[in-house]
Amino acid sequence: MIFTKSISQFGDYCLFMRKVFAMPDRWKLFFKRTLSEVYKLGVDSVPLVVIVSVFIGAVITIQMQLNTSSPLLPAYSVGLATREIILLEFSNSILCLILAGKVGSNIASEIGTMRVTEQIDALDIMGINSANFLVLPKVIAFVFFIPVLVVLCMGTALLGGIAVAWGTDLIPLPKFIYGLQAFFSEWYVWYGIIKSLFFAFIISSVASYCGYYVKGGALEVGKASTNAVVTSSIMILLFDVILTKLLLQ
Is the Cβ–Cβ distance between 192 and 177 less than 8 Å? Predict the structure, then answer.
């Protein structure tokens, strides 16, 4: 029963995406709405990304130092391991799981509110493709801006680690800096950005789908927002495994 329902919902999602990616009727209005969504979904997320990244970078550095303090390991290994964790996993997968809670719930509640207040029905009556008009700018804007958030996350998380090395006596700062630079692979940065593009599409499209098909009132909007976050998180973890296998093999 659950499997059948999941297949049915996936079919509805595919049909929904077909409506979303239709040709916009008015390009000027589309670009205007896209820029607005870039600010609302992307720029407004910068403070959250910076705060979380700095503290997580600091925590990773402390934990790596406490768990790898061995005379058999070089001192710079803490910086190297911290860098790899941040580039490979935290700056894309964990960051997008956090953004699924902020951006996903925002999108689902906004579109769900428009559905229960019959604003979407009004657009449909006027002959406007409501899915394309409301959802496409959000998807394009978030996918467009997510690389900026990922690179910002990488930089601020590494700064958090540097702050720990500078402000404490856990690890000498020159050794930590050397570890950040040692055996650096540029592909790891691109790997994180590529994964984040898929995750951004999942967050924005799944949240839009959950909000677009809300039925009922305010209570159902809250449930749709919760479902959007949970479903997006599960899909991010699933695609994290798939993309890691494809991109790092």
Answer: no
Intra-chain end-to-end CA distance of the chain, in Å: 36
- Kindly report, residue by residue over 24-64, the tens digit of the pLDDT: 888 899 999 999 999 999 999 999 999 999 999 999 999 88
What is the dihedral angle through the alpha carbons of 207, 213, 217, 218, rounded to the nearest 10 degrees?
0
Determine the residue type at 36: S
CA angle centred on 14, ends 226 and 102, rounded to 5°: 25
Which amino acid, one-letter code, is at 29? L
In sequence order, which residues have a C-beta less than 8 Å from that of residue 71 and are 6 or more positions away?
A: none
Write out pLDDT tens, residues 80-107: 899 999 999 898 999 999 999 999 999 9
Please return the burial class of 104, using the count of CB atoms within 10 Å of its CB with bins 0-12, 13-18 and 19+: buried
The mean per-residue pLDDT over the stretch 106-128 comes to 90
Cα–Cα dist 69/64, whole Å = 8
Rounded to an integer, what distance in angstroms lies between the CA atom of residue 164 and that of residue 167? 5
Helix (H) or strand (E) holding 161: helix 130-167
Position 9 pLDDT exceeds 90: no
* pTM exceeds cut of 0.70: yes
> pLDDT at residue 182 above 80?
yes
Residue 85: C-alpha distances to residues 120, 186, 200, 227 (Å): 43, 14, 20, 29
Indicate the residue type of 221: V
Structure tokens at 21: 């990616």
Residue 1 pLDDT grade (very low, low, confident, very high; cuts 50, 70, 90): low
Residue 249's closest CA among 182, 187, 180?
187
